Amino acid sequence: MDIHRLRLVLEICERGSIGKAARTLGVSQPTLSKSLARLEDQLGQVLFQRGRGGAATPTIFALHIADRAREILRWTDRLEREISLLAGGEVGRVRMGVGPGAKAIMLPRLVTEILARFPQLHLDLDVLASDELHERLSKGQFDIVVGHFSPLLDFPGMHVIPLFEEPGASIVRAGHPLAGRDTLSWAESLTFPHVSTVRYTTYAPFFSEGLPPEAEQILTTVRTSDMDCARALILERDFVALASPFIFMDEIARGDLVLLPVPRRYRSACSIAISQEAADFPVIRQIIDAIKRCATDKGLTLL
Fold it and tell me: Which end of the chain is more exposed for a tag (fewer CB within 10 A), N or C?
C-alpha cells in the first residue's frame, strides 16, 4: 500500500467524513470515494461504513491501517527532513534549544551566522531552562541544544560536547542588604527569596553547606527561563538570582549587579548536546562550529 492510500485512510478516520477528508487532501469528494472503493476492492474488506452526508465510520480494518499509517508517515516525514539536512543543510528544518546563559553569550549573533550560511534553512529556536532542554532533547523534540547542564544529568544515546565551565553564582543588586559582605553563609542568604533558572534538584547536591529543609521553598520561590522577569526581580526587589553569571554579564560589568560570597562547590558547565539522528548532519556540525566561535569571541576558554 502506497503513502497516498495510507494518508487517504488516515484522513478519513481522523475527520470522520469523506467530504472533510477530501477537502484536507485537496481532491473532490467523488474522486476520494472512487479511490476508497478501489482500495476496498483490492483488500477485499470494507474499511468504512458510509452514512448520511458523507459520514464514514471506520471498521476494525481501517483503524488498524490508520494506526500503522501514523507511524509510517511520521518516519517518512522524518526521513525527508534527514535527507534534506544530510544534503548540506541548504534546505530543511533544524530544531534548536538554547538555555538562558547560552542565550546571553551568543544570541542573536548565532542565528544570524547560521542563516547567513544556510539562507534557506528553517530554524525552530526555543529558549528554555536547561533541564527542560534536556527533557525535550531526550524525547526527540530537539536536534541540538546548548545550555548549562547539571553533572547529575545523563545523556544516553546522545552526543555531548563540553564548551566551558564557570562557578555557580548568587547574584543581587548593588544596593541589596547582603551586598558588600566579605563572607556569607547559606543561612544568611536564605533570609531572602531566590529566583533560579534550574530545578532545585539540579544544583542542591553540590552546595558546600548542608541546606535546611526550608531551603527548597526559598531557593525556588521563582523558577523561570524568562530572564527579563528574573532581571526585574533582582534589580527592583531583594531577590537573589541563582544562575549563570553570563545571563547578567552586562549588569555585572556595569556594577548594577554583584556576586555574593556564598560557599559552594557547584560549577556550571555549558555544553552542546545533539540527538543521535542529527549527529551526522553537515548543518549540525557547522552550527556546532558557530557556537564555539561565538563562545571564544566572548573571551571564553573552551574545554
Answer: C
Q: How far is CA 17 from the centre of its chain?
A: 36
C-beta of residue 282 within 8 angstroms of C-beta of residue 142: no
Map residue 12 onto helix, strand or coil: helix
Residue environment code for 46-84, b if the CB has 16+ CB neighbours within 10 A, otherwise e: ebbeeeeebebebeebbeebbeebeebeeeeeeeebbeb
How far lies 69's CA from each of 28, 45, 267, in Å?
Answer: 22, 17, 47
Q: Look at residue 177 and give its three-state secondary structure.
A: coil
Distance CA 148, CA 198 (A): 9
From the number of C-beta atoms within 10 Å of its C-beta (0-12, 13-18, 19+), residue 2 rates as exposed
Q: Are 235 and 173 in contact (CB under 8 A)?
A: yes
The pLDDT of residue 89 is 52
Sign, Cα dihedral of 96, 99, 102, 104: positive
The pLDDT assigned to 266 comes to: 65
Decide: 113 and 297 in contact? Cβ < 8 Å.
no
Both ends of the chain: CA-CA distance in Å? 52
Q: Over the stretch 64-74, which tens digit does the pLDDT of each residue have? A: 999 999 888 87
Intervals of the chain under pLDDT 50 = none
Q: Which amino acid is at 7?
A: R
The structure's pTM equals 0.63
* Spatial separation of the C-alpha atoms in residues 47 and 25, rounded to whole Å: 18
